[in-house]
Design brief:
eight-stranded antiparallel sheet, four-stranded antiparallel sheet, 468 residues, 14 helices, Dna Ligase, domain 1, 17 strands, D-amino Acid Aminotransferase, Chain A, domain 1, Rossmann fold, 3 domains, alpha+beta
């Protein structure tokens, strides 16, 4: 992290500190944790290494849970909080471990009512039916899965739970459906089988008891201006502390950047807040942070709820630190400790901040990646910029983990400024200075919304990060 971002050093001295266990803690998030108020009162412990959780060669759940339990039981001091900012599998592990160690958190059932896409849509259809797309449950292993879908083309087809939009496809016709369903059949169990272990801890109603993570959901395509609400529910009290705009590339599928604060009208965001409150209250979601994604169809003045995530978004952490004066980690830590969150508002050094995705839309070999000194020089040159590289020299882009179906995520570039235009200019300055270089492949694979490469998805069997 850029050294110019103000940090408040933690301390393990004295008897008043709190032991906060963070699943998969890495240096990026440890630095952001030090921006929060009262950081000197906490000792942040890594519960499972980040490489085991976020960058595994194979996904596992049962084994990490057992290892985490053993680490916690062996700890000689008090266990004051167990938290996590990663989606899978951490989002499921936190409620299981907190329940076992007597710590405040949302129930696993309420988490699944948000994270299990089919269960979530069922619950939403009962309380906010006007704000969700039409949907169908799909068993990809049925003899003719398309007969389970009564939506017009195009529609989305995606697993009921995935990571990084993995195996999510926009379907335009029967021929495309057949290709995508084959890719799903070939690969979905590699994610589903490990994560089905979590369902053993939950009390499932009959309507979803047989719908494990090897199922998919088909959804009507909706669109508009996208944003994400971040907030928490603490002891039944609901609060949204920030709204971030999500801006996509022209393919309408891949994220281009996040900008904070949102430029949407207040009357629109107030409606989104009320919809979120109504749903979370209905499912008894409590004592947890959340982020909720929405579309606003400006032409028809209609609001669509995309999905509910039961954690902070680490993609937004820098944005809150720059604009509000503390990372959203603050709310996660305080709720985890059983304290009412005290997130600051507009106390940061900048009026605006953004996370930009530097992407490629065609497979290639990475020939040159900026070195650490190059990155540090750029971060010093562009005020408070922060850069994270996602590729290494010599790799093929299709080897990148947890990519959407339409692009390759090369780098994350975080910038801040006092004008929105400054975000764009500072991003471009960073990109020009990074000097990535790529070699085209003789048979390169182009990703796009209409032909994003069935050949590319046939290569999924060779991706080393998938479970066997």
């Amino acid at each position: 992290m850029n050294s110019r971002i103000e940090q408040k050093p933690g301390s393990a001295e004295g008897g008043s500190h709190k032991n906060v266990f963070v699943i998969g803690l890495n240096d990026f998030n440890r630095a952001l944790l030090q921006t929060i108020d009262g950081a000197e009162q906490y000792v942040f412990h890594t519960l499972l290494e980040n490489a085991e959780i976020e960058e595994p060669e194979v996904y596992r759940v049962r084994e990490p849970l057992e290892k985490a339990r053993a680490q916690l039981r062996a700890f000689p001091g008090s266990i004051d909080a167990i938290i996590g900012y990663i989606d899978m599998p951490v989002g499921f592990m936190v409620p299981v471990l907190c329940r076992e160690f007597g710590l405040p958190t949302a129930s696993l059932e309420s988490v699944l009512k948000c994270q299990h896409k089919y269960w979530s849509r069922l619950e939403q259809s009962r309380v906010i039916p006007d704000h969700i797309p039409r949907f169908n449950l799909v068993d990809p292993f049925a003899d003719d899965p398309l007969t389970q879908i009564d939506l017009d083309y195009p529609f989305w087809l995606k697993p009921v739970k995935s990571a990084g939009s993995y195996l999510g496809f926009r379907i335009h016709n029967r021929r495309e459906f057949d290709k995508r369903i084959k890719a799903i059949r070939d690969n979905i169990r590699r994610l589903a089988d490990p994560f089905n272990h979590i369902l053993e801890y939950a009390d499932l109603p009959d309507e979803v008891a047989g719908v494990d993570f090897s199922h998919c959901i088909a959804e009507q395509i909706v669109g508009g201006r996208q944003c994400t609400l971040e907030g928490y529910v603490f002891e039944g009290n609901f609060h949204v502390f920030g709204i971030v705009d999500s801006i996509r590339y022209p393919n309408r599928c891949s994220f281009a950047r996040y900008e904070y604060p949102s430029s949407l009208p207040n009357r629109v965001t107030r409606r989104m807040i009320n919809i979120t409150l109504e749903f979370l209250d209905y499912i008894d979601f409590n004592n947890s942070t959340f982020n909720v994604e929405f579309f606003w169809d400006e032409r028809n003045d209609r609001i669509w709820l995309l999905e509910v995530n039961t954690r902070i978004s680490q993609s937004h952490s820098y944005l809150f630190a720059m604009v509000d004066g503390a990372s959203n980690h603050q709310s996660m830590v305080e709720v985890g400790l059983g304290h009412r969150p005290t997130m600051p508002h507009r106390q940061g050094r900048y009026r605006y901040a953004g996370k930009f995705y530097y992407r490629m839309f065609q497979d290639a070999i990475v020939e040159r990646v900026p070195g650490r000194e190059d990155v540090q020089r750029i971060e010093q040159q562009v005020p408070d910029a922060m850069i994270r590289l996602n590729v290494s020299e010599g790799m093929k882009l299709w080897n990148l983990r947890e990519q959407d179906s339409y692009s390759y995520d090369i780098a994350w570039i975080f910038v801040a400024g006092n004008l929105r235009q400054e975000l764009q200019s500072r991003y471009r300055e960073c990109v020009a200075a990074l000097d990535f270089r790529f070699a085209e492949l003789r048979e390169s694979i182009t990703k796009g919304p209409h032909d994003h490469g069935s050949d590319q998805r046939n290569l999924l069997n060779e991706r080393v990060y998938l479970p066997k």
